[in-house]
Amino acid sequence: MNAEFFDAIEQIEKEKGIPKSYMQEKITQALLTAFKRDNDGVDNAVVEMDEKNKEIRMYVQKEVVETVESPATQISLAKARETLGKAELGDVVKLEVKTKNFGRIAAQTAKQVIIQGIREAERGLIFEEFTSKEHEIMTGVVTRIDPRTGNVSLRIGSNSETTEAMLSMSEQVRHEVLNEGDRIKVYVVEVRKSSHGPQVLISRTHPGLVKRLFELEVPEIYDGTVEIKSIAREAGSRTKIAVWSNDENVDPIGACVGPRGGRVSGIVEELRGEKVDIIKYSEDPAKYIASALSPADVIRVDLLEDGKSCRVIVPDDQLSLAIGKEGQNARLAAKLTGHKIDIKPQSAE
Question: One Pfam annotation, family name (predicted)?
Answer without folding.
Answer: KH_NusA_1st
